[in-house]
Amino acid sequence: MTLYLDTSLLIAALTNEPETARMQEWLGVQQSGDLAISAWVTTEFSAALSMKLRSHVIKAAQRAAALAAFTQLTAESFNMLAVTEVQFRTAAHYADRSDLGLRAGDALHLAIAADNGATIVTLDHRLAEAAGELAVPAQLL
Predict the structure, then answer these.
(1) Class of domain 3-140
(2) Most exposed residue of 5, 15, 74, 136, measured as fewest CB within 10 angstroms of its CB?
């Protein structure tokens, strides 16, 4: 089974947040061949770290350490799923569902997971609920 990791999980695992220990423990017991991300996760991860830096939640050295850890995890433990034009169109269709309250990036995560038959794993309650409404397998941690 492929587990598609949402950015929220990785930010929690690699920066100092309330869920850090739990996410590191969860990642530590997973089979690396089962874990997947996309280039969109990479983009969101960098953007989230930049936002934390701008808002003085982290320092430049912490940002660099988190990026290095993410790069190492990506190389050693994650399968990289392609992002396609079809997935962008599917994401637009998902985002059209105003009742779901999806942001564009979350809609894209769901489209990538759905297209690859993956279960999206997240800390985001709204994303997990939307996944259920769209029949995309989800695991809320």
Answers:
(1) alpha beta
(2) 74
